[in-house]
Amino acid sequence: MNIIPIVVGSFQVNCYVVGGTEGRCLVIDPGEDAGAISAVLRQNNLKPSAYLITHGHMDHVGALAELTETFPAPYLMHSADAAWAFTSENQMLPYYDSPARPATAHLATTDGATHTEAGLHFTVLSTPGHSPGCICFHFPGDKVLFTGDTLFSGSVGRTDLDGGDERLLVQSLARLAALPDDTAIYPGHGPRTTLGREKRVNPFMKSR
């Protein structure tokens, strides 16, 4: 697994290009700057097998439609967020207008579902709280977890936006805390970390 982080957009979202086998890859949370993401794909001779979306907020899906025009592939996203992600409900002016809906297929997924894309095996963990359909992507063989806006280095995702729920986020963090401490955390914003470190120093995780 070769993970290439790209920081995109006004809210400094971490988009990840994850290299797999035979020149295929996954693109996680293409929030903005489709040109920059496309450049990384071309430079590394990679073609997406799928786009993985941790949640539906505009800063995490804004470049998806444009990217799929050039690099067509389905997008995997929880249905609870797909229902509103590409509508007028999902905007934050003046920073973001409503994201365009991709023309490619939506792959609905559920908690505990296992997938293989680009030769990479991962499990979907439902972690609502920041949004109703927040999910994390766990690659147990590589000890890697992409947490989106559920868990950051030293912090967690906010719950005061529409669809946020602090009680659910607490439950989601407890679920993540049960994973091995040496799991590498690749969050939606900020630097990478490890689960063990967050359990020691993150005030939202200490009691989990």
Task: Describe it.
By secondary structure, this protein is of the alpha/beta class. It has one domain: Metallo-beta-lactamase, Chain A, CATH 3.60.15. Helices cover about 20% and strands about 30% of the residues. The protein has helices at about 35-45, 60, 65-70, 80, 165-175, 195-200, and strands at about 1-10, 15-20, 25-30, 45-50, 75-80, 105-110, 115, 120-125, 135-140, 145-150, 150, 155, 185, 195. The chain has a 6-stranded mixed beta sheet with strand order 1-2-3-4-5-6. A 6-stranded mixed beta sheet has the order 7-8-9-10-13-14. Strand 5 (about 75-80), helix 4 and strand 6 (about 105-110) form a beta-alpha-beta unit. The model has no long low-confidence stretch (mean pLDDT about 95).
Give structural attributes.
single chain; 208 residues; alpha/beta; Metallo-beta-lactamase, Chain A; 6-stranded mixed beta sheet; 6 helices
CATH architecture verdict: 4-Layer Sandwich
Termini gap: 29 Å
What is the count of distinct domains?
A: 1
Strand fraction: 25-35%
Strands, total number = 14
CATH topology: Metallo-beta-lactamase, Chain A
